[in-house]
Amino acid sequence: MKPGRSLQNLATELTRQLETKKDFIVPTPAMTIKSNAMGESVLTAQFPNDSHDFNLTAVARRQLAEKLKIPFQYFERMRIEEPQLLDLNVNAWLHRAFEEVMLRTGDQKLRAVLSRRYRRIDNYQIADQVIPVLERIPGATFMSVELTETRMYLKVVSRDVEAEIAPGDVVRAGVVISNSEVGCGKLWVQPLVFRLVCANGLIAADQHLAKTHLGRLLEASEETFVVFKDDTLKAQDDALLLAVRDAVEAAVSQSTLSMLSQKLRATMGIRITGDPSSAIEVLADRYALSDYERTGVLRHLVNGGTLTGYGLVNAVTEFSQTVADYDRATELEMLGGKLIELQHGEWQRLAAAT
């Protein structure tokens, strides 16, 4: 599992950010973009008595481009090569139609451009409520916490809930809680499987577990264990805390770990009979891995010495520890979880690729 920052550092940064963050509801005609000499896009929001200037983050640029129906690749090309053209295009579309949007700002930056209906579930709020719940997990160890431009992550493993995949190959139950306060995904809770021998983390998804334990408050999907939709969640903080508590208890349970361990054991019997590099190509095409990621996963698969489905799952999760970007590393841990859910026919097509 990729390491992050300390829990104390996370708390300090969340507190600091809380003091600088402000949200505004602004009509699009009251906004203007101007590129500066540093190649940065600066948005000016005009209010009745004053105005505020904000440098756009990459997230805000993408969201603004999407809202104005400007392809992001073209948006970025104009920003780099023809900034005056970018300003002309963006301002024309901003002023053409009236729409009120939410601007999420902090540290003099525009962090997000969102619908005014966006349900704000902030990282500080989540951490303040969830960390005490996580600390009460028997044998709880905070293995990795991080705060990126797009998401906050809390990854906790229990020393008291274990299973053996094979003799000497022990895994522990854990949970991942992640939240985005800038519109880059929902608040979710997912089971985590931590493999002791190589410190790999695998993030699992099981919609049935979400439906069983959390009822009407939550919506299940193929990719998440528990989903809170930003624009529909109306529960008060105490109800939210109860829902998260139930999700955590379900994730870090012997029954959940037993179920996931059984799925992991099943991948041991899947032999990669074709060309390993071809198997990785099939994997990469299906899950949009970059060339760098293809090479890295293949190297870990071959070096692992086990050309099986289990070896491939571990190659993906072990490679994730070397990825510089924490968000992407977590996505690869989720990919490990998706692989153990593959049907037999899907595994066979991958394993026999030549």
From TrEMBL:
Annotated InterPro entries: DUF932
Domain of life (superkingdom): Bacteria
Protein name: DUF932 domain-containing protein
Organism: Zemynaea arenosa
Organism classification: Bacteria, Pseudomonadati, Pseudomonadota, Betaproteobacteria, Burkholderiales
